[in-house]
From TrEMBL:
<comment type="pathway">
    <text>Amino-acid biosynthesis; L-histidine biosynthesis; L-histidine from 5-phospho-alpha-D-ribose 1-diphosphate: step 8/9.</text>
</comment>
<protein>
    <recommendedName>
        <fullName>Histidinol-phosphatase</fullName>
        <ecNumber>3.1.3.15</ecNumber>
    </recommendedName>
</protein>
<dbReference type="Pfam" id="PF02811">
    <property type="entry name" value="PHP"/>
</dbReference>
<feature type="domain" description="PHP">
    <location>
        <begin position="13"/>
        <end position="215"/>
    </location>
</feature>
<dbReference type="InterPro" id="IPR016195">
    <property type="entry name" value="Pol/histidinol_Pase-like"/>
</dbReference>
<dbReference type="GO" id="GO:0005737">
    <property type="term" value="C:cytoplasm"/>
</dbReference>
<comment type="similarity">
    <text>Belongs to the PHP hydrolase family. HisK subfamily.</text>
</comment>
<keyword id="KW-0368">Histidine biosynthesis</keyword>
<dbReference type="InterPro" id="IPR004013">
    <property type="entry name" value="PHP_dom"/>
</dbReference>
<dbReference type="GO" id="GO:0000105">
    <property type="term" value="P:L-histidine biosynthetic process"/>
</dbReference>
<keyword id="KW-0028">Amino-acid biosynthesis</keyword>
<dbReference type="InterPro" id="IPR010140">
    <property type="entry name" value="Histidinol_P_phosphatase_HisJ"/>
</dbReference>
<dbReference type="GO" id="GO:0004401">
    <property type="term" value="F:histidinol-phosphatase activity"/>
</dbReference>
<keyword id="KW-0378">Hydrolase</keyword>
C-alpha cells in the first residue's frame, strides 16, 4: 500500500509533452509536492500508431508520428530524472495513458517492453478511430453516424470491454467519459442495453483486479460531477472494486486539484483509501 492520503494515478499531462496542456513536467511535480502529495502516478498520452490518428492540435504544430514517438521517449527519460531528483520528497510512479484505436494494442505492448512503465491507464477516446471527446462538434457528428447516442454509448462500452480484456490496464481511465457532451446522461446510463454493459465491464474489472479512475477533470472544467457518476460508484462499491482519484491535471494549477474532496467522498461512501501500488498487468 502507498503511504499518502493524497494520490492521483491519472495525471501529470504537461505542456512539455502534451499539446493541450501547460507548464513543464517538473513544475507539475513541484506542484504536487507543494500540495502535500507523498506519491503520484504520471500518465502521459501514448503516441499514435499512424498519421491519420494524430490529434488536430498536434497536426497544427506540425508533429509527425516519429516526432510524437521521440517526444514520448523524452517523456520517460525526463520522468526518470525527476523521479530520482525528488525521491526524498515524493514517490513517482511512471505510467502512460493508452488510446483505443486501430493498431494500439500492439503499440502499447511495444512501449511497455521499451520503457518498462510501472503501470498503464487504459482509456477510450475514439470510436471507429474518431475522437469523440475532442469537441462537442465531433461528438455530435459521431453520434449522428451511430444514429443516436444510445448506440454510441453501447459502442463505447463494448470498445472499453475489449480494451480491458486485451490490455488489463491497472487503472481504467474515466470509465464514463462517453457522457462528456450529453446533458441527459444520467437517464441514458440507466437504459437497459447500456446499464447491462456497464455492469459487465465493472464485473471484469473486479475479476481482473483492476482499479477505477475517479477522474476529477470535469470539476476543473466547471462541471459538477466527476467521472464516475454516483450510481456507477455505488455499483463499483457493491462489487468491491478499488477506486482511486485521478486529477487528470493539464497544468501546475490543476495538479492535485479536488483530490482532497475526492478522498473524503470515497471515505464517506465506504471505499478504502489504502491505495494499491501500481503495477503493469498487460499480458505479453
Amino acid at each position: 500500500m502507498i503511504n499518502s492520503e493524497l494520490i492521483s494515478f491519472h495525471g501529470g499531462h504537461s505542456g512539455q509533452f502534451c499539446c493541450h496542456a501547460q507548464d513543464s513536467l517538473e513544475d507539475l511535480i513541484k506542484a504536487y509536492i507543494s500540495k502535500g502529495f507523498k506519491a503520484v502516478g504520471i500518465s502521459e498520452h501514448m503516441p499514435p500508431p499512424e498519421h491519420r490518428l494524430i490529434y488536430p492540435d498536434e497536426l497544427e504544430q506540425g508533429f509527425s508520428v516519429k516526432d510524437l514517438g521521440d517526444r514520448f521517449s523524452r517523456y520517460f527519460f525526463e520522468l526518470e530524472r525527476l523521479k530520482k531528483k525528488y525521491k526524498s520528497d515524493i514517490l513517482i510512479f511512471k505510467g502512460f495513458e493508452t488510446e483505443t484505436v486501430t493498431g494500439s494494442p500492439a503499440l502499447v505492448r511495444s512501449l511497455i517492453r521499451e520503457f518498462n512503465p510501472d503501470y498503464i491507464v487504459g482509456s477510450v477516446h475514439h470510436l471507429n478511430d474518431r475522437c469523440f471527446d475532442y469537441s462537442r462538434q465531433d461528438y455530435e457528428a459521431i453520434a449522428a453516424d451511430f444514429n443516436g447516442l444510445d448506440a454510441m454509448y453501447t459502442a463505447y462500452f463494448d470498445a472499453q470491454y475489449k480494451m480491458i480484456l486485451d490490455l488489463h490496464p491497472f487503472v481504467v481511465g474515466h470509465f464514463d467519459i462517453i457522457r462528456i457532451y450529453d446533458p441527459d446522461f444520467e437517464a441514458r446510463l440507466d437504459k437497459p442495453e447500456i446499464a447491462e454493459r456497464i455492469q459487465r465491464n465493472l464485473s471484469v474489472i473486479k475479476e481482473l483486479g483492476l482499479v477505477l479512475d475517479y477522474n476529477l477533470r470535469p470539476l476543473a472544467k466547471g462541471k459538477k460531477m466527476p467521472y464516475l457518476t454516483p450510481a456507477i460508484l455505488e455499483r463499483a462499491k457493491a462489487l468491491g472494486i478499488r477506486v482511486v482519484p485521478g486529477d487528470d491535471a493539464h497544468s501546475k494549477e490543476q495538479a492535485g486539484m479536488f483530490v482532497d474532496r475526492a478522498v473524503q467522498s470515497l471515505k464517506d461512501m465506504g471505499f478504502s483509501t489504502n491505495w494499491p501500488r501500481p503495477r503493469c498487468m498487460t499480458p505479453a
